[in-house]
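User: For a reading group we're discussing how well predicted structures match intuition. Take Sister chromatid cohesion protein SCC4. Before you show the prediction, I'll give you the sequence so everyone sees exactly what went in.
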Amino acid sequence: MLRSRLSKPVAFLPIEIKTRLQIANLLLKHSHNVNHAKSHLERSQLLLKSIPSYFELKCRAYSLLSQCYNLVGAIPQQKQIINKSLELISTAEKGLAVKLWACNFYSQLANALMIEGDYRSSISALEQGFSCTTEIYYPELQMFFATSILQVHLMQWDDVNLVKRAVKNCDEVWEMIPPEKRQQCIGLFFHSELLHTFYLLRICDYKNAKQHDYKLIATVKSDLEKRKGIQDLTTELNSINQSLSQSDLKNNERSTLSTKQTQIQEHLKTVACTESLESSYFGNVREIWGDKLELAPAPIDGEWLPKAAIYALVDLMEVIFGRPKCLFKECGRRIQSGVHLVKEELMKLGITGGVREVDLQNLAIWMAGVYLMLLMQFLENKVAIELTHFEFSEAQEALVEMKSWFVRFPTILQVCESIIEMLRGQYAHSLGSFTEVTFYFLEAAKLTESKSMQAMCHIYAAVSYICIGDAESSSQALDLIGPVYGIMDSFVVLREKTSVLFAYGLLLMKQNNLQEARICVAGGLRVTHQHLGNIQLVSQYLTILGSLALTLHDTGQAREILKSSLTLAKTLYDIPTQIWVLSVLTMLYQELSERGNEMENSEYEREKINDLQKRLTDVLSSIHHIKLIKRLKIEARLLHDREMKRATAGPSIRVNLDIPESIGLTTPAPVPSTRLMDIDTGRRGKKKI
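Assistant: Thanks. Here is the predicted 3D structure of Sister chromatid cohesion protein SCC4, as structure tokens, for the group to look at:
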């Protein structure tokens, strides 16, 4: 019908423009034919030039055309059309509708600038949008801009005080929204709570971060229950409609069913929808419990991430909180849930076994990037968890899958290349292949621009050099640790400080500088215990302190510390650390002439060594093992420059999930007393950061 309207001579120009806008809107909502929609909108824009007024029509055309340019990755054209829109806004009479359209265009401009990596200008555009919402006192829209500003600050993170100020602003604006309206702002709630969680994780404030996580879990549960209630009502309504369509239905039955039909329809309308302030201007009725978590009302009408991605992120948060506490069973359940959800969404996008990055349409790249990045985060955590309790085969399988996804989608997953190299290093280190390990970690450092990641790569490589054990390797370890140790207090994340203290303490112990090593390790343990809560790292710090105490002939303290470490290592199923602790305990019993304890301890140690050796034998025979430890970079073909900008812009989850305990390391147990310089890597097992 709309097409036929265009084929007839049109005397009144706005009718043709409105028709083209309707067609474009339908194409954008119900098809992938963005180019066709764009041609209608470009034609509408040309026609609108000859009309002096029609502010509303021009804004609609500009907004839709801007969205089209964004979808096809034509960011310069998008910025050009938005600037025209803002010029139009500046000449219009001020009113609510004008302010709302200004908010729309500032939001789209900020997004375009963020894709280009111009964070400063993006924040400036968002701040102008925030000013507009303040003038009309619209707290929900203020919250949209406040959370968006926080998101960009988290991505940029060049001034921690600016990030803190953005967090505080979000809290203040959220309190301005009446409680009954907050329940309708589900998308804003998820956006704000997840951004708060990312921020608190970044500064290692796990206690407060967990409080936000509890809220997220409760809201997901409530959302699922409400959606199920709506689905049940919809099913019942469909059944009633089917019954009412029967011609032989008795009058009294039809009357009863009609009453029931009306009741359910009213109930559904009440539960699922709400009228918004701007409905009189834009005819907007928002579905609160649909598949879209809107961040803002029309004409912005946008979302941060799809609901499925939000649910997956909440699963991922649970994994991140559970890993340091070694709640591996729950972590495994959440990883399985998240991976299943993500892969379902990838299939909906047409990403099945044989599909590669070059096969994707440009408009699908960003959405694919959201789910692929989430998938890689889940797999990264799976590798780390499986290596923590030395399930080598499971870790190997997850790492091989990460490599496979990267080869197929190298541009979208470009940021993951350094993570994969780090995980390859951890995998090789767990198997004792120390000479290969340093290659992977130093290669990973070259592949990232993150100063934090580079520091961790150098620390990990240094630990590997320490494990090699000769004088030259120790010198190379010091060259890597020294610069990081010198600036460790400058890092926002405490991961770098605890890791460099661990590595430096290990090196001092290796060099027989025992008192200084003790001070260094004790400082690292204190930070780890107070701020990170990482049980495994605490266990390993205790083992080093126990070894140092024994070497310094403080046998009473050594016994107490080592028993605590062994208890934690058993809880974690961390076999190498158990072997390490047991070997030191054997020496303790020898020194104390406790023959019975020595024999019992040695027997238990042999059992653990045999268990570890069996696991090593199984994984070394795998066909994937050689490929994982071979000193070769992963080869993959990237997209063209314009496509790459669009693909690598992606959602902020790439930057925000810089989790402090994302990777662990193993190192053989340092031997106390006079044998400190002669580490028996084959017998002592390995320990993990």
